[in-house]
Amino acid sequence: MTWLLEGDPSIRWQVLGDLLHASQEVIDTERARVAVQGWGAALLAAQSADGRWADALYSPKWTSTTYTLLLLHWLGLPPGNKQAVSGCRQVWDGARFFDGGLTLAKSIRQPETCITAMLVLLASSFGHRDDRLDPAVQWLCEQQLADGGWNCQSVRSGSRHGSFNTTISALDALLQYQHSGGGLLVSSSMQRGRTFFLDHQLYRSHRTGEVVNTAFTRFPFPPQWHFDILRGLEHFRAAGSAADPRLGDAVKVIRRVRRADGTWPVQRAHPGKTWFRMEPAGPSRWATLRALRVLRWWDGGAPI
């Protein structure tokens, strides 16, 4: 815990809240530092006067406005931050709107499920008010497939099987919308989406039991648009779900990665240009924080 608390404010406020159960006043004070110190402050300083990052809305990954805002969300930049709201306004106003669904990708001429989910999450996280938010949430719920998942290919090619990547993006967006006080009822859609993952033991084929993609067993930070088992477990924890036995195999994978000193290592990042490297090779505060709080939830709050 001492080592974790020596990290960036974005690490410290989450350690204080999720592992040490500090008072809300202490947590809020530390969280406010994300905007003025460390990684959060560096990202905010990179914003252009018009509210964008890298003069782009969605590409290049991972320095565009969308992905920089996603990173600020994961760092825990508090809602209402003026710079984040300005960035949200840029991506929402720059998106094309199709009866609820949105897209920012120039090459995609249909509403895009993953991008719609990202924009819903960002608006809900930072408190950006937009009359299109509820229609976007409604559209997102309507895209849910019969197996409980979502797939960004269902609009473009008619795919009817849920995608792990798209489904975690949709679930995280709906949960953030719910936590922010969104007016539409989304609990049923979220429950069906979580059942999709339970049916797959989080990362395995429901037909063969084989691991769908070995990349799912790695958990770099930030996850960007990708699914991995730690991100999946984090969603179940954040949603207040029970520790379902069908998640047990994924939890074992997380435990096996732990180093002898009790930490988890830095994982290879998703390829692409970033604003800066947060952690060098070796023990990772991000991975350790995320793994510890998931294991504490799984073990019923017991010390790790």
Q: Tell me the strand percentage band.
A: under 5%
Task: Please give the largest β-sheet.
Answer: 2 strands, antiparallel
Main β-sheet, spatial strand arrangement? 1-2
Helix content: 40-55%
**Helix/strand order, N-terminal first:** HHHHHHEEHHHHHHHEEH
Question: Spans of 5+ residues with little confidence (pLDDT < 50)?
Answer: none
Number of helices: 14
Rough outline:
globular
Number of separate strands: 4
The class by helix and strand makeup works out as mainly alpha
The radius of gyration is 19 Å
What is the arithmetic mean of pLDDT?
96
> How far is the first residue's CA from the last residue's CA?
11 Å
Descriptive notes:
α5 runs antiparallel to α6. The strands form 2 sheets. The protein has a two-stranded antiparallel sheet. The protein is built from 14 helices and 4 strands. With 304 residues, it is mainly alpha-helical. Helix content is 48%, strand content 3%. The radius of gyration is 19 Å and the shape is globular. The protein has helices at residues 2-5, 9-18, 24-32, 38-45, 65-75, 82-94, 113-126, 133-142, 153-157, 164-179, 187-199, 229-238, 248-256, 285-298, and strands at 96-98, 101-103, 264-265, 283-284.
